[in-house]
Amino acid sequence: xxxxxxxxxxxxxxxxxxxxxxxxxxxxxxxxxxxxxxxxxxxxxxxxxxxxxxxxxxxxxxxxxxxxxxxxxxxxxxxxxxxxxxxxxxxxxxxxxxxxxxxxxxxxxxxxxxxxxxxxxxxxxxxxxxxxxxxxxxx
Length: 139
Hints:
By secondary structure, the chain is mostly helical. The chain is 59% helix and 9% strand. Strand 1 (9-14) and strand 2 (21-26) form a beta hairpin. The longest helix has 21 residues, at 118-138.
């Protein structure tokens, strides 16, 4: 073991101009674990939907593909779409808007609260804007 680190090889060479000693460190196998360590950025290259639960992303993509066709192009466009939405809306805003949206579809007197209240309208508007941006970028 060398004094400079575990497993590092050190070679001393005379510097040509100054006559002093130039130390060159050969890293060798000490960086191998860094190269083999998986990085989360590579696993999710978009990196934007990382805060959204996988089930939510899959649910969105499946629903989108039902609407737009069961093709590879639809898969790519729908995946892009949820990535764009995730880059615009934090997950808690998305979840709130989806809850208001689904509850507004129910029948009865209480469902009006989910359609007519100011928070419900604001959440749905925010989601619609994000979806419109996703449509422009992805479809």
